[in-house]
Each structure stands twice: as C-alpha cells, then as structure tokens.
C-alpha cells in the first residue's frame, strides 16, 4: 500500500507486483491477501488481450468493452467487431467483413491417453487445436 485515497475513505493506492499503481477497496485487498482472489492489473490484462489478438491478425481497439467478457477488435482487412475474450484467446472468431477465420482452417484427429489414479482413459476427437482440449496452451 502506498497511501490512502484522499477522496474515497474505503480505498487505497497500491503498487502491484508488475509495477503498476492501482486504486482498490480495502476489503478487496484483504480478500485477495486471504487467498480469495488475485488483484489483477487492468493495464497488464489489456496488454495481454492485445498480444492475443495480434496472434490472429486482429488489433484490440481502445474502446470501452461493449459488454462483460467482450472487447472491440479490428481485423487486418479493416473491419471492426465485438468478440468474446475467450474466443480471441484461441482465435475462434470469424471476421464479419471478409469471412476469414477459424472454420476454414484444417483440423486434426487426436487420441489422448490420460492416466488417472484409478484407471487409464482414452479420449478420441477431432479439433483444429487438440492442445486446447487439454488446456495446455
């Protein structure tokens, strides 16, 4: 904690591990310290969203989020639209302007062997990104 917020008595100014300074409510910081959740950095989160978008030829726009869980993005063709953050993470989105996107990409058949304490399970499937099925990347 760097200081109390002079205008809001239930808030303080904090420096996060990333080095950014944020204003947060005391009770939220207390819950985070107790392991209830993590104090996120808005700047770092938006930087991460922008990097995720660039991987799939999109640009994160500096516009307010149209609704929770979504951001505005511009495709390399120039068209902009709202896309869910989760879909952009994996590139599971189609540009409404040019039609380019993940449905046209090739998929693979996969077979995973999953060893559990009580048994071994085989998972067979078809996916564009088999690693997503295991949440490895």
Detail the topology: elements first, then pairings:
Blueprint: E1 3-4, E2 11-15, E3 21-25, H1 26-33, H2 42-54, E4 58-60, E5 70-75, E6 80-84, H3 85-90, E7 108-115, E8 120-127, H4 130-134
Antiparallel strand pairs: 1-2, 2-3, 4-5, 5-6, 7-8
Q: Could you please describe the fold and organization of this structure?
A:
By secondary structure, the chain is α+β, with helices and mostly antiparallel strands. The chain folds into three domains: 3-33, no CATH class; 42-104, no CATH class; 106-137, no CATH class. Helices cover 23% and strands 31% of the residues. The chain contains four helices and eight strands. The protein has helices spanning 26-33, 42-54, 85-90, 130-134, and strands at residues 3-4, 11-15, 21-25, 58-60, 70-75, 80-84, 108-115, 120-127. Strands 1-2-3 form a three-stranded antiparallel β-sheet. The longest helix is centred in the middle third of the chain and has 13 residues, at 42-54. It is flat. The protein starts with a strand and ends with a helix. The mean pLDDT is 86.
* Percent of residues in beta strands: 25-35%
Shape: flat
- Chain-averaged pLDDT: 86
Structural class: alpha+beta
> How much helical structure, as a percent, in the residues?
10-25%
Number of DSSP strand runs = 8
How far is the N terminus from the C terminus? 34 Å
The figure for the number of domains is 3
Per DSSP, the total helix count is: 4
Low-confidence stretches: none
Taking strands numbered 1, 2, ... along the chain, how are they ordered across the largest sheet?
Answer: 1-2-3
Could you give a short account of the major beta sheet?
3 strands, antiparallel
> H/E element string?
EEEHHEEEHEEH
What is the CA-based Rg, rounded? 20 Å
């Amino acid at each position: 904690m760097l200081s109390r917020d002079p205008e809001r008595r239930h808030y303080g100014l904090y420096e996060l591990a990333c080095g950014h300074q944020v204003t947060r409510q005391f009770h939220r910081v207390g819950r985070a310290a107790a392991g209830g959740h993590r104090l996120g950095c808005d700047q770092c989160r938006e930087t991460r969203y922008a990097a995720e978008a660039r991987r799939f030829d999109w640009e994160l726009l500096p516009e307010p989020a149209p609704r929770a869980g979504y951001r505005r993005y511009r495709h390399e063709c120039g068209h902009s639209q709202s896309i869910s953050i989760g879909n952009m993470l994996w590139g599971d989105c189609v540009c409404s302007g040019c039609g380019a996107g993940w449905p046209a990409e090739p998929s693979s058949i996969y077979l995973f062997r999953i060893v559990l304490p009580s048994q071994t399970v085989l998972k067979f499937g078809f996916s564009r990104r088999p690693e997503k099925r295991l949440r490895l990347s």
